[in-house]
Amino acid sequence: MTMPTEIPAGDPASPSADDSRLWLERLGASGPRRDAAIVELHALLLKAARFEIDRRRASLPHLRGDDWEDLAHESAADALSALLAKLGDFRGEARFTTWAYKFALLEASVKTRRRGWQGREIPIADDAWARLADTSVTAGAHVEDTELMEALRQEMTGTLTKRQREVLVAVTLNDVPIDVLAERLETTRGALYKTLHDARRKLRIALAERGFRIDGTREEAS
Amino acid sequence: MSDSEQGETRERETVLTRLLGPSGDVLGCEECFIELDRYVELDVASLDPDRHVPGMRAHLEGCPACAEDFQSLKALLESEPRRP
After folding, report:
1. DSSP one-letter code for A212
2. How do the residues of chain A divide into helix, strand and coil, expressed in percent and rounded to 5?
3. Would you identify the CATH topology of the domain A15-117?
4. Close Cβ partners of A160 (under 8 Å, ≥ 6 residues apart)
């Protein structure tokens, strides 16, 4: 583990820089001084994890109080491990505590989302797309909208790979959290976002080549 | 246009926005996580975070999970007493 010895950015004279420097000094020490810093840091991460989990309680009404507390402690412990492994990456561009919070919030949000989808089938089939494509031909639709939606439908099936289409539909139309989908597909959130990004880029290019602007109208021929 | 027609139009616009995402999304989730603490502090302090972290806004608009992480960190900072 690389232990930074100084704050490389930000205002070195600011109170927050002093606080951050103190955190790094204590975590870089040995013996009781470091142990005390770890205990304090864990308490900070647990506070953040509880905050995140409280925000998400409504999404998991079947969990009991103990379950929530277990989830918070698991999140704080995993966040502490992740943070200590990344301590050398702290750049001092934000407070150390803000930097630390994001590890706990990420762990808590991922764990809560995964718990919410535990035992549920992931809808990766493109049923949602088929339903929405139907709405483009209802009586109220403008001609331009109908043409755009039809072009989009064709490009989704003709331009995208099956994997790109499944990821795009699952995340954007079926509201499957990207980290839940990543776990089921045995990949990472970053890799899956790249798949999503590439799919969107291909669709945008294909629609532009057909003369569509993304606001739903066709470009006037020049 | 009737209410139901307006509703359908809004739904189509939402579908398009979600499917096609924002233009100019150049960050990935890893880069977003790296920049998140700085971006949120700038946002909470109204210090033009998008000028300091270009591309972050577009990524947050295109990635629901990262957008949730942004909202959570922002809410947590705003729940604390203001510090110098």
Report:
1. B
2. 70, 0, 30
3. Rna Polymerase Sigma Factor; Chain: A (1.10.1740)
4. A168, A199, A202, A203
Of A101, A194, A203, the CB nearest to B76: A101
DSSP letter assigned to residue A171: I
| B14-67 tens-digit pLDDT | 788 889 998 877 799 999 999 999 999 999 999 999 999 999 999 999 999 999
Q: Structural domain tally of chain B?
A: 1
Which ranges of chain A have pLDDT less than 70? 1-15, 125-144, 215-222
Answer whether B63 sits within 8 Å of A178, measured CB to CB.
yes
Architecture of domain A127-209: Orthogonal Bundle (1.10)
Burial class of residue A214 in the structure, from the number of CB atoms within 10 Å of its CB (0-12 exposed, 13-18 middle, 19+ buried)? middle
Could you tell me how far CA B55 lies from the centroid of its own chain?
10
Nearest to A111 by CA among A81, A84, A85, A77: A77
This model of the complex carries an ipTM of 0.88
d(CA B58, CA A74): 32
Give the distance from residue A116's alpha carbon to the nearest chain B alpha carbon, in angstroms. Answer: 14
> Structure tokens of B73?
């960190």
Q: Chain B window 11-40: which residues touch A at a Cβ cutoff of 8 Å?
A: 11-13, 15-16, 18-21, 23, 25, 28-30, 33-34, 36-38, 40
Token pair 């109208």: residue: A217
Q: Locate the domains of chain A by residue range.
A: 15-117, 127-209
CB B58 within 8 A of CB B23: yes
pLDDT the model gives residue A3: 44
Kindly state the tokens that stand for A31.
Answer: 């013996």
